[in-house]
Every structure is written in C-alpha cells, then in structure tokens.
Design a protein that fits this description.
This protein is an alpha+beta fold. The protein has four helices and six strands. The radius of gyration is 24 Å and the shape is elongated.
Length: 159
C-alpha cells in the first residue's frame, strides 16, 4: 500500500510532503477533468457568413472577411491537406488564441462532424470567387443552389 494511503488509514500525523503530494494529486486531477470537459465542449466549427469565414478550433478562433482570403487551390481527389486558408490581407483578420502564421489561418475541416469537409472547402473557394452570391448565405434557397452548383455529396449540409 502506498505510504500516503497508509498514514491516512492508520490515523498517523501527515508530514508536509504527504500534504503537498495529495494536494498536487487533487489539483492535477481537477485540471485534467476541467480540460477534458472544455475540449469536448470546444468542438471545431466552421461558419460561412455573409461577412466572411469564422472558425472555432481547439487552438482558438478566427474570423476572416471574404475579401481578405485568397482563393484556395482546386481540391484534388483524396486530398488530405485541407487544413488552412491563405490570407491576402492579414490586417482585417481577427484572431483569438494561438496564431502560428500571419498569412495562413487554420481550417479544421476533418474534425467537423456534421458536414463533409470537401463541401465546406469547395463552398469557401466558391464564395471567395463569387462575391455576388455572398448576400444569400444562410438562406435555404442559396444552400440548395450551392449544393447543385458544387455537385455536393448527398446528405451533406452546410450549417
């Protein structure tokens, strides 16, 4: 039986080392529980709005107006590197959290659970190149038009 448990059960007087050891164990356990709950609650999300792209991930969140983004390169079949967008103008991009590069923003597409990552990538590429359709983002008719235009995977939805 560990020494710290022995003194607690035997009614012995704890030493300073025992108290510090137990305090540290409880503190580390508490931090682990809080962080695991926080990480589960902070599920990655990508939102396309009329104003731009908003991303929330485990590393933080960012918002980039459409005009600040460069058009992403065409997606290749079975492309597994859809993890960032290049920024034309870093000035209007707003960050909160960890930022690794100034001219690139993270895109956690493969962590999304409710929409196919290629649909989101293709939608971002489409709206960067077609500003005339951005005002309709969020409307059901625009979603259907976009799905038809992109030939989206059946069952994928952009929320």
């Amino acid at each position: 039986m560990p020494r710290g448990v022995r003194w607690a059960l035997a009614g012995e007087e704890p030493t300073v080392v025992h108290v510090l050891m137990w305090t540290l164990a409880v503190l580390i356990t508490g931090i682990a529980v809080v962080e695991s709950v926080r990480l589960r609650a902070a599920a990655p999300a990508v939102a396309l709005t009329r104003a731009g792209v908003q991303v929330k991930s485990l590393l933080g969140e960012w918002f980039a107006p459409w005009d600040a983004l460069l058009a992403p390169p065409p997606r290749q079949p079975f492309d597994l590197m859809l993890d960032h967008l290049d920024v034309r103008e870093p000035g209007p991009v707003r960050y909160r959290g960890l930022r690794l590069r100034r001219r690139r923003v993270g895109l956690p597409l493969y962590e999304l659970r409710t929409v196919h990552p290629w649909f989101v990538y293709d939608a971002i590429a489409y709206y960067v190149g077609h500003p005339e359709h951005r005002d309709a983002i969020g409307e059901e008719s625009e979603h259907e038009r976009l799905r038809h235009t992109l030939g989206a995977i059946e069952g994928a939805t952009a929320r």
